[in-house]
Amino acid sequence: MDIEVAVIGAGPVGMAAAAFLHQAGVAVRVFEANPERAWQSRATTIHPRTLELFDALPDEHGSLAARMVAAGNPVPATHFAALPNRLSYAGLDTSFPFVLLLPQPETERLLAEHLAEQGVVVEPGWKLADLTQDEQGVAIVSETGDTRRAGYVVGADGAHSATRHALGLAFPGTPASTMGFLADVRLARPPAQPHNWDCERGSYSALPLPGGIYRIFGHEPGDTGLTPEEAARRQAQIPDEAELRATLKRLADDDFGITEVLWASRAGDTTRHVEQYRTGRVFLAGDAAHVHLPAGGQGLNVGVQDAANLAWKLAAEVRGRASRRIIDGPQSYDAERRPIAARLAANTLAQAALMVTFTPAGKALRDLMSDLIGRDGDTADELRGWLSGLEISYAEDGGLVGRRVPNLPLSDGGTLHRALRPDRFTLVAFGTAIVPEGDEVVRSTRDWHGLAAVLVRPDGYAAEVWTTGDNITTDWTEH
């Protein structure tokens, strides 16, 4: 079969999935409904864990992550619910201790360039109409009747996923009750503070993007407490420059000298996620599997992390060497990523409550949460770990197995994350640890929590650990 995996959707999640699969030696092809790449700058934020994953994709610039950092605007802190006190990333144990602000068109351009350099084909203007599957593969059919066949399909085709509809999967959750504005603009006099909130007027934020552009977003009190029908009508009413100016003047007595509107839209708090990430030979990832308020720039990042979790497992299945534990067991794609979507839904709904409850009680809650973040204690650590992605874990018992392994320096001068490959596990030995003869091993110059060795999954999480005195043996075929 020429196409081992067909990816439906050439957004950041779909192209990331294709990149990881190709790196694992899988014959992958991407099908995109739109004839041209989207220019709207919807997602603008790339968090550290996503950059770590892209760092394992080598290219002529060193890695895809390096190429993205060069094109973006690194900032040392991020916000939770647009609260005044921000979460610093400066002390995080990562090679990327910052938030990277990079407009989605740039992210997609860099991913597309990477795929083209690797010889991965992206077919634009190919819109999925239906699919059928059997024990040997999946037939995908376009709206023009073009039929292709692949071993597996990854649906990364957004919130209105044709893949999900073809599978007949429900998309349970809650409809929008609020619908704010967002736009990318140029400003002659940007506001002094990035986030501003007033109990009577509403909220507005302005975040600097590369190229002198600002992402502005916010809500007025009338944007909240909507019925689903009211939210749908408001969502269809895209604000033009005159409306954006008027909105900002109501919120701040100043339109901040808007000189150009590059793109504008509406954003609501619709929150949904599927109850299964896999149906036979078809998988869902990113917005096709979960949608939520775009708070804290989490959507793209969680979607790319879906792709990284899936790619190495699917590559092993394509090659016939996957164990039951990663096909439909406790380490399967569905078992590990669906709980993350549930937590994401709760996280963004909580942010929505903090952002748009324009009452004295809402102000008191915001002040309380901002104060807790400002103390930089346990609350800040919990939120920082979740938003950055660095503390997302698949550990079942609170131990190290299932936790992310940091970017350990290696004795050859390299680093662990760039040494990872999506088609194999990496055995890292610390100090004088003895490993079985013939195993491929790298040695670290820094001990991770006092271990003798750790077996690292292709996506950077610990599969097995050994302490000093343990016999370091493993049946690689079990993984």
UniProtKB/TrEMBL annotation:
Ranges annotated as spanning the membrane: none
Superkingdom, natural source: Bacteria
GO molecular function, one term: oxidoreductase activity, acting on paired donors, with incorporation or reduction of molecular oxygen, NAD(P)H as one donor, and incorporation of one atom of oxygen
UniProt-recorded name of the protein: FAD-dependent monooxygenase
CC cofactor: FAD
Keyword Oxidoreductase: yes
Organism of origin: Amycolatopsis echigonensis
Keyword Oxidoreductase: yes
